[in-house]
Amino acid sequence: MIITDAQQNPPRSQAERHAHIVGWGADLDHAHRPAYPMERTPPRLPHAVPPPEQQHSHADVLVSSERPRITPVYGTTLPPKGLSGWLRRQAFRHSENDLRHWMMLLLADRVNVGEGLIDDLSRGHVPNLYAEMGGRAELRHNPMGAARKAAIGIAALALIAVALKRRR
Amino acid sequence: MLAMNYRGPYRVRAAHKAEPEIEHPGDAIVRVTRSCICGSDLHLYHGLVPDTRVGTTFGHEFTGVVEAVGPAVEHLKPGQHVLVPFNIFCGNCYFCQKELYSNCHDTNPSATAVGGIYGYSHTTGGYDGGQAEYVRVPMADIGPTVIPPDLDVDDAVLLTDALPTGYQAAEMGDIEEGDTVVIFGAGPIGIFAAKSAWLLGAGRVIVVDHVEYRLDFVRRYAQCEVVDFKQVGDMAVHIKKMTDGLGADVCIDCVGCEAAGSFAHTLLGVKLKLQGGAAIVLHWCINAVRKGGRVSIVGVYGPTFNAVPIGNAINKGLTLRMNQASVKRHLPRLIEHIQAGRIRPSDVITHRIDLRDVADAYHLFSSKLDNCIKTVLVPPSALAA
Ligand SMILES: [Zn+2]
Ligand SMILES: [Zn+2]
After folding, report:
1. What average pLDDT is seen over chain A?
2. In this structure, is the dihedral angle defined by the CA atoms of residues B306, B311, B315 and B317, taken in order, positive or negative?
């Protein structure tokens, strides 16, 4: 009798082939998949949920023009102020569908960084840029990189010094 | 209290700020015991997410002990140790009624495209996050889940985003028995997507990245094949070669807008910010999947435009699915998986860092130093616990 390859090594099922993987196929059945189907009604929350009350606060919140009202719940941190705040207000005159909305917000973010520096200094706090950028971690875990950055910095300063000297 | 404080791109520090207060009858104040730095926090850290205001506290992945609750809170009690899903959601609006918690319409006034998220810019509602000693938790009867007594808090904190997002990524791929699944990105989300692909019955799981220690980790932890995209010429062609010329059944994008791998995309999207980040992984997904295949996207992209090869997707008859994870809907099943020993999420935690050293923690994670996979921040007030 000729024993074929297939008889000697019968094709193994997926489950057998993946027996070494803990939990293989545990959720093969769609009934086990939490998001099947995509939209599911009613939601499986542990208890009934009443509609939220309206939050009231004095916070200045910028509201998307795509919504007729403020949401019942919102964050109240860091209201818009200064030049960046003015830019953000302008941005919110445009809908989320309008690229200007997003580009002006990004611009406001850049302006806001400068305002943050001024704010620090006006409080008499000189920010430790080295520490804020994780200098210690860089030195400890990437000493070559830190050295390279330091060398580039020193070289740049030297070039500026030379250029200034030449000018005189 | 002490809290992480964003000062600008690549600049953060730990600083003192006022403790949060109850501002809505449904709020709770939670004393944080653990918070994570997420890969998507890096997009904020790098200044890519619009309306990220200087002074913001990041952190959408955290666990903590309930300190106080507002008058409308009925079910959550002070003293309970909870894990808090990163979505802030009302449980009642049109979208929450369909279990689309990440798409809640009633917790984010600043945008309608995305729901409320803790510590994720004013585009997601202007809430402060959990990389702090205390945090305001709105809709406290709905989002927070009490940590079961037999669940380790380090496992619990990974249930607030990383594991559910990885799981949902795999689930949106509609994986069927024996499918070949290619996952782009070997960060925590990619690692959990790989694990989840096996749970869903995949036949083959391939993970793509370019950082050697991450590939080593995912190969060991998720028992999958790995590809270093820097070592292969054309990524899509390489996947076709691995799959008899057909392409993968499912491709999953766990990278998002800061993908490496294409000079043009990096220049246009990340450096010049002329598109909503680098869409290179979307190109790879659409071009490496088989005709009629499925692409699942959980990587974060900005709201501005991206160059995406949509024509190829049409011609190939692909199904594209994408979303932020609706964490709460996945929790019961994922807790079962942990309790049954099918997955131990805390295994991905490589660093445990004092909140006071948050700047070092961000730099370490952002620059992928010291073989960092996942960082947990512990506030000084929780260090004893
Ligand atoms: Zn996250
Ligand atoms: Zn809702």
Report:
1. 91
2. positive
* Among the partner residues A14, A113, A127, nearest to B201 by beta-carbon distance: A14
Q: How far, in whole angstroms, is CA B147 from its chain's centroid?
A: 20
Q: How close, in Å, is residue B363 to chain A by CA atoms?
A: 5
Q: What pLDDT is stored for residue A148 in this prediction?
A: 86
- Fold equal for B2-161+326-382 and B162-322: no
pLDDT in tens, B163-190: 999 999 999 999 999 999 999 999 999 9
Cβ contact, residue pair B7, A127, below 8 Å: yes
Q: Which of residues 79-138 of A touch B (CB under 8 A)?
A: 80, 84, 88, 96, 99, 102-103, 105-106, 108-110, 112-113, 115-117, 119-120, 127-129, 131-138
Extract the tokens encoding B359: 């700047």
Say whether B302 and A102 touch across the interface (CB within 8 A): yes
Interchain CB distance below 8 Å, B13 and A131: yes
H/E stretch holding B32: strand B28-37
Separation CA B13–CA B2 (nearest Å):
10
- The alpha carbon of residue B21 is apart from the nearest alpha carbon of chain A, in Å, by 11
Residue B85 contacts by C-beta under 8 Å, 6 or more apart in sequence? B101, B143, B144, B145, B160, B161, B164, B327, B328, B331
* Predicted local distance difference test score (pLDDT) of residue B119: 98
Cα of B126 from ligand 2 centre, angstroms: 16
Residue ranges of domains in chain B: 2-161+326-382, 162-322
pLDDT at A34: 95
A8 or B248: whose pLDDT is higher?
B248
- The β-bridge relationship of strands B62-69 and B81-84 is antiparallel
pLDDT (tens digit per residue) in B238-293: 999 999 999 999 999 998 877 666 666 565 555 555 555 568 899 999 999 999 99
Joined together, the tokens standing for residue B45 give 């850290």
Domain extents for chain A?
A: 78-127, 131-167
Between CA B222 and CA B205 the distance in angstroms is 9
Rounded to whole angstroms, the Cα distance separating A77 from B121 reads 10
State how far the Cα of A145 lies from the Cα of A137, in Å rounded to an integer: 11
Q: Which two tokens stand for residue A124?
A: 């008499």
Instruction: Give the CATH number of domain B2-161+326-382.
Output: 3.90.180.10
Q: Domain B162-322, what fold? A: Rossmann fold (3.40.50)
- Contact in structure between B52 and A110 (CB atoms under 8 Å): no
Residues of B in contact with A67 (CB under 8 A): 109, 112
